[in-house]
Amino acid sequence: MFSPFLFKNRLQLKKIFTNTNLFQVTDQELNFHLQQLSSAHAAEFDSLAALKELYLYVSKYYGEVMTTLDECPTARKLGLGHKLKALAMAVYPQQQGPGHC
């Protein structure tokens, strides 16, 4: 939900966060607050539109997403790279993924 915004505005965000004194937030706290935000806007959420955007994003940045998932200890622990690759193989059975056309 937040990925396109963060990607497009990363330079502005970097400037904001560089000039701001931030406090540490645990993954659990972040997940809790994001879940609350999602729940508050659940009626506004279009699942099909979100899936389409996610599909387009992963198709465009497949290599980068896989690299990030492979490098992230939490993602490796959850097997997210393998799950994404399995999904990509289901969608693109003759290829290694969306980026290998």
Outline the structure in words.
This protein has a domain at 46-101. It is 70% helix and 0% strand. The protein has helices spanning 3-8, 10-18, 27-40, 47-60, 62-71, 73-78, 80-91. The chain is globular. The mean pLDDT is 81.
Short characterization:
70% of the residues lie in helices and 0% in strands. With 101 residues, the protein is an all-alpha fold.
What brief labels describe this structure?
101 residues; mainly alpha
Based on secondary structure, the structural category is: mainly alpha
- In round numbers, the mean pLDDT is 81
Instruction: Note poorly predicted spans.
Output: none
What is the count of helical runs?
7
Quaternary form: single chain
Shape: globular
Radius of gyration: 16 Å
Largest sheet: none
The end-to-end span amounts to 26 Å
Number of strands: 0
Could you spell the SSE succession in H and E letters? HHHHHHH
Strand content: under 5%
State the helicity in percent bands: over 70%
